[in-house]
Amino acid sequence: MPPSPLMAPPLRLVAPPPGGAQQPATPREFMQMLGITDTTGTAWIERLPFSPADTTAGSETELQTAVLGSRRDVDLPRAIEQSSYYRNLVRRAASGDAPPHHIVELEAYLNTPEAVWENSWVHFPRRMLNTFAESVFESDMRADKRVADGPPRCDVHRFACSEAGIAKVRVPVSYLLKLSLANAIGRPGVPPMVRTTGQAMMAHFLNDNTSPETHSFHPVGSGGGQSAGAAAATETLMRYLLTQLLAQYANRRFGLETSGQKTIVYFSPHPPVRQKGLNDLISDAFYRELFMSPCLSGWLCGEDKHRYMALCHEVLSRSQLNALGKLKEAGIIANNLVVLPNTSNVCLANNGTHLSIGSRRLTAMMGDPGSGYGLPEEKHYGDLVIKISEHFLPLFVGSYSAAPYRFDFWDFHPERVLGFLPHELDYTHLRMLWRRWKGKARIKCFGHPLTPFGPQWLDRTVSRLLGLRGDMVADIRLLDYLVALLSTDESPGLDGRVDNDVRLLADLENMGIFNRSMPLYMLYRLRQYHRMGFTGYEARYFSLFENVVPDMGAAADLQLLITMLAYKYIFEQTVSHGLIPDDPTVESERRQFFFGAAIGIPTLYVHQNSANRFLHKIIKAARNTRSSRRYANYIRIPAVEYRWALVRILREDGRDLIRLMQLGPVLDDLEQRIGDPGAHSCAGRLTRGILDAGGWSSPFKADGREFNRAAEAYYRQDLRRRHIREGFTLFRYAVKNLDSWSSWRSGQYNQALLSILGGSNADTYLAAAEKALITDDLAAETCETLIYLMMLLLHQSKNSGKSGGSPG
Hints:
Helix content: 40-55%
Radius of gyration: 26 Å
Strand content: 5-15%
Oligomer: single chain
């Protein structure tokens, strides 16, 4: 089995071959490498890369954490109050050197009646760790974990501290999860199979960035009645369930709940509203101290990774400021009256799911010097697949994942709501998109869009008097984060040349947009063999799934279909790099449909003489298009008709692929999501859940802060419980199979099950535990039992190559 296609720090597992200027093989030569002689009939389709037998899949999930408790007990408000930053601010406010409202607003943050502290750290007595967990903690405190007796990290005092003479551990929740697993498997009498599996799983809980990140425990593929997409979604949900068990276990075993620090972990796509408000009150350095994780887990030299994450925060904050100049050059900002963005940007607190797919054949060919398939071919055809796939990405936005968000009228400054779009679209498409967004939003006065003036007291008054309500978008995460950097004229990012990303990064650094030490942010990113150990792609545009297996599973299968279709086009020689030129305007032209879907723009425009011939194919399949009356030589395309055109192309050009992959139901489901988005799309279902929880009939019955806070509460409470219930159903089914007569006959797990359950029936035991898990009332001992059962399932699925099964 090839290495797991997962998110990981870039690794040079294999030295890239010399000769970067070498010409890649032709499509026909590439086909011959795969054993495809011609494209007649349908037999050759099964040998395409990313066919069902060829695909492995995995995911990385970013999660939101919160600690529930009072100001005096929870670490975040305590850290603020005990900081020199806070003390200096109090002194400066008292002496008149700082505006008094700064301290008033900070005190209001600290005195919140909700007692919910997103992304807070936790602290507990060190004696709560058992021997094995203590050894893990000690190892992770080393500056270099490869040196067993090496010096500790320079900042070890932040994590191993003392209070009132009691030695304490103080860590982010993302690292708490790893300690929780270590403590569970380190208890006496744990079956060796459980301990060994648990030790291997600890590395999958990353202490990176702000939010906890976990990545797949092993790659999955199709089989056992599941598609690769369904298997990847099942594995993701089972990993999420284990995360819930570890959080509840830490609450009990480490005494967090009794000390007023109840920890919860859940899916939530955008930075918390209160955290964004706090960011406006403090410096960028203090923000990093409070929220940037110290990278205790997942890297050999955590301090180096922590410094890198600080660099990312600084670069993205600066990049947002540099976007102002582009907005002015584009004519969107007509004068110097702007609301300056904060020098500290919170976009790294956005959370999503990254789906990676790998090809067994391409990976094997890259590892075989005699195959003829090397770095030039991987890059040339990988970039072309990405360019083709990008045209189809609007199908996913809002349909399968979403991040509903309300903007108030006073938020509607272009320098705020357009976010990083000036670095992702060219001026022409940026102007068009902004005009259509203003036309869509509820900011019109006598039929003309009105944007806010600046002073918020004035904008609030105008909003109230004129009934200007702002707008609602389907996916704020795709607007609030730098998801796809635009190429430059000198350095195209997807022209198929080796190291084109390196050249583009150098250009972007010189322009003050990015940093060359950071990976190039893309919507659909090539995963290269010499860096990752496998050949494949990573989809980075998924935000929040309302129902994980139906939403994520179908989305993953659709992504595989599109990727296979791209290779089919290449081998049939109907699409080449020349038909999708590598020009920033052409790149922006196709991506405008993606960002327009995130906003909900009703119509977009394509130049009638566009050099992108593949886009012309799509527009030709669209209905209700016409020449634009506003923009000469442009075609006006309704956004929904663009998506319907994509579906028609998939059904026509991918008919044989759909039959091979048995994806007819997925396409039928996609049509429902497009045809009735309010009832069937992820954005529609999430919005309805938020409205029901808030007691509103429409998003515009609440102001932006009320709606967005209600969304966070919905994700934290109702949706989290639903996801737990969804995961527990899969877990219970898989454990029932593990404890079945057929499994007992194999004898592999008998002793472990007997040791864990003490002779009890597994299904009966789980039925009794389910309600307590959903209501956060599991006893520590029950948590341990469920964690041990999960380790057995992971051992079984990893060794069998399956994802745990499905109750059908």
